[in-house]
Amino acid sequence: MQLNGERQIRIVVADDHAVVRAGISTALSDLPNVQIVAEVGDGPGVLAALDLQPDALVIDVSMPQFEPLQTIRQIRMYYPQLKILVVSAYDDDVYVQGLLQAGVDGYQLKDQPLADIRLALQRVLAGERWVCTPLLSKLMRGVPLVDTGLTPRQRELLWCLQQGDDNHAIARRIGLSVKTVENHLTRLYRQIGVQSRLEAVHYAAQHPQLPMIPTSSQNLGPSQALNVLIVDDNLRYRQHVSRMISKMQPNCAVVEAAHQAEALAAVSQRSPDLALVDVVLGDEDGIGCAAQIKQQSPNTRVLLVSAYPDREFHRRGLAVGAVALLDKKDLDAASLRLLLEDV
């Protein structure tokens, strides 16, 4: 993505201080073909501004209602082409490394000249990684990283890579399709900030504090008895989805709920691995229900479904921690199988 092309480069600037936002916007506006499409000051504002389909997000992650690592990971998942440049006063190397692993493309300190922000944006738009000079020496000392939030499946994959398994061997070892293994590896590489299998193995060797999970000591394949919660006010639809899941995974424990109270009661009895929640539950708000499920059971993977998916549902769902919004007509046996394999 070049700044000297004919197409306008759309930028969102996010900082909770209006003066800082104005300064950054003014500095970036001097670049050719740059258009500041939004200036926002909090987490909900960031998520709303992403609907404008910007090319880059220039952000101070220390803002109200914004959880940096989790939200950056979610933004990276939903907007893989978006360039993310952090402009922050924090120079803690562990904090910086955590954000780089979460998916940001560059990190610039606020106490550096505004001209450096322009250069940083140009570099990340060109597809490069950017870390400002004062941080480089800290990062190169190899300070141990913070907890990357790797899932058991991702730690298992790292262990398989250390054994020298190729994708076909991993698929056989843990009982997934080769395509699903490839998708898992892509997300793993992005999360730990590497580009290849060799770099991932090196990462694991450099971080022995990360507990790897040998597949022989786990039961994470398709035969695992997952707990699935289906929240939908349509009885026939609930039963239809439940039957599909039971056919694919007979050992799977499926619980159905018609409204929020039933759903939360079920979660209090047993935390589900996966929750499928309709956006509209009669007169109730399914996204609000999803938020309550995440609050009560943070490790539950929540997927919203709707017969009428739109951008607003998508934005609100992302804000409460849902991992996706699916069109009901697309939720067939094949997509369900992928969802269950991905848990």
Automatic annotation (TrEMBL):
What Gene3D superfamilies does the database record attribute to this sequence? Answer: 3.40.50.2300
Keyword check for Metal-binding, yes or no. Answer: no
Give one GO term, molecular function aspect: DNA binding
Q: Which residues carry this modification: 4-aspartylphosphate?
A: D60, D278
Domain (Response regulatory) spans 10-125, 227-343
Residue ranges of every copy of the HTH luxR-type domain listed in the record: 141-208
Q: Does the keyword DNA-binding apply?
A: yes
GO-annotated biological processes: phosphorelay signal transduction system; regulation of DNA-templated transcription
Keywords, alphabetical: DNA-binding, Phosphoprotein
Which SUPFAM superfamilies does the UniProt record give?
C-terminal effector domain of the bipartite response regulators, CheY-like
Quote the protein name from its UniProt record: LuxR family transcriptional regulator
Q: Which organism is it from?
A: Herpetosiphon geysericola
